[in-house]
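Form 7-S
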Amino acid sequence: MIYKKPRNIENKELSFLKEFLASSFFADINKNHKYEVSIIQEPYTGFGYADLVCIIWDQSIRNRWSDKRNQLNITDIKILHHLYNVKIFKEKNEITKELGFSLRKTNKSVGKLLEAELVIINKQNKIKIKNLKEIFFIKEIISIEAKLHDWKRALEQSLNNVYFSSKSYALFPEKIITKRLMAEYMNTDVGIISFEKSYRVIKKPKKQKIPSSLNSWFFNEYIGRELCANFK
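Output:
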């Protein structure tokens, strides 16, 4: 569900990003070491390829991940996210009407979600998502867009990242952060990081609640499938 961009040819912007990756930023956001930190470079997010996505996740997923979750597809996750949004028991016919799927497709997806232990079913045969803490293991999704000069493009991309992230940042060399740039970013939910030899958070982002979109779930499933499998 998470696709990564083919490796880019080395350029100044990529070198800048690599230098930032070697900074203390990612260690500093997880100082207590309570959770795991994973960094994904250039994953596809539905709006394009984010430069960096940092996932902070609960290690208990390693013991609770079901192999049945590895069989889930995009339709299954769409239904799961819909059930998360409505937060009440739903009949399969209701899900069909609300999402525009056929009853056959809905029945198949609900069956897979039940097998994966992500939803529950009551005596009236209605479906509801399980407690989020039991199935969504990500604590934060931090996205970062890096630009050497084009701060307008960085703002556009960073605003797109807000839709799936808990925090969205734009990353720049310190010398290009001007009053005009700050004014354009001031009333947005995007944060600003400057970086030369060390980093500095110039503007804090507005923290968003997750999962806020399908892509939030896709990163959750990526952690389970790609990373937890290594610990079994």
